[in-house]
Amino acid sequence: SPLQPDWFELVPDAMLGSDVPAIFRFDPQALLGIGLRIGAGTQAARVAVVYVGKLIVFPRGVHAPHVPINLGLELDTFNGISHNGQYLGEIITGKASRTNFGVRFLPNQFVRDKLAPFLTRRRAFFFAWAPEDFPADVGYCWLARGQAPRPEYDWETKSFEIMMSLEGYAR
Fold it and tell me: Does residue 148 contact residue 122 with C-beta atoms inside 8 Å?
């Protein structure tokens, strides 16, 4: 009808087989709104978090070594040991996905225009360290407790570098 806006597809249909975090990228453009079509498979469809916003793409990528957030499971445990020293098992009291990463050779304008405003937001975000090569390595993350990442300037390279510690939900 003439009152309905014309809709077009930003990203192709995808059927996620589990409750993994996922990122769908599309070219930046001015839009009045975004719709999300959810279809059920064999079970009712569910969505926990949907975030639509501008990506921050680091110009040079994460430097090695790096543990992808979905492989960075850390457990808080209590080991059960009997009085005579026998191992009785392990009780998991908490778990989280965590990672640390660093990025080097960041241009001055990138840090001031894109990274600094992001660091002051202090909200959760989706993180993918290499979405082209490892599209499943995605997490819904936040800065680790007590973490206040600060870009450091290197006079030799005339660029910034930063280290960040993240916690989050990943599968």
Answer: no
What's the pLDDT tens digit per position in 53-88? Answer: 888 888 887 877 889 999 999 888 888 888 888 888
CB neighbour burial string for 18-35, b if at least 16 within 10 angstroms, e if fewer: eeebeeeeeeeeeeeeee
Q: What percent of the chain has pLDDT over 90?
A: 26
Q: What is the dihedral of CA 50, 99, 129, 118, to 10 degrees?
A: 60
What is the Cα gyration radius of the chain? 21
Q: With 0.90 as the threshold, say if the pTM is over it.
A: no
CB 52 within 8 A of CB 26: no
Instruction: Write out pLDDT tens, residues 16-38.
Output: 777 778 888 888 888 888 888 77
The answer to whether 75 and 110 are in contact (CB under 8 A) is no
Contact (Cβ atoms closer than 8 angstroms) between residue 107 and residue 59: yes
Residue partners of 120: CB distance under 8 A and separation at least 6 = none
Say if strands 152-154 and 125-128 run parallel, antiparallel, or are unpaired: unpaired
Q: What is the DSSP string of 68-111?
A: -GGG-EEEEEEEEE-TTS-EEEEEEEEEEEEEEEEEEEE-HHHI
